[in-house]
Amino acid sequence: MTYEEFADSRLSALLRYAVMLTGDPNTAQDLVQETMLRVQLNWRRVAHSDSPDGYVRKILTNQFVESRRASWWRRVLLRADPDPVVAAPSDHAAESAERDRVWSLLASLPRRQRAALVLRYYEDLPDQEIADILGCAVGTVRSSISRGLDALRAELVEAR
User: Fold this and answer.
1) Which of 19, 51, 61, 152 has the highest Cβ tally under 10 A?
2) pTM to 2 decimals?
3) What is the mean pLDDT of residues 13-34?
4) What does 28-62 look like in DSSP terms, one character per residue?
5) How many whole angstroms separate alpha carbon 144 and alpha carbon 47?
């Protein structure tokens, strides 16, 4: 498989994953662009790996976790108070508000916990693959997921 074939087949999935990590399509595009640049420069190593897709997802995740810059969406969402009033589920505005609330809750988590939760619940990966991507032990993955879920639960209880 060539780099171009890989990019054509996996770019949209990588972008969806990056949006889940960052919460912002523009930041996600930047993250994917930086990742794909690194992938292209190291294509021989990526292509010869056991799982090129996993290798690239690991690069993307590491870039996200190691990023020191706080994105604008995190600063904006953390300042906003979530609306405690929940309207009917068919209400588009209520669904949008609930989605924004979830983004703000995810944004409050440390990056590794957020990455672990997205890899588990959005990408539907098993613990071992998440550990490989994050470069840590399986127990650390489970701990990160557990702590992330505990923090989300605590925020939800506190908001009620």
Assistant:
1) 61
2) 0.68
3) 91
4) HHHHHHHHHHHHHHTHHHHHTSS-HHHHHHHHHHH
5) 30
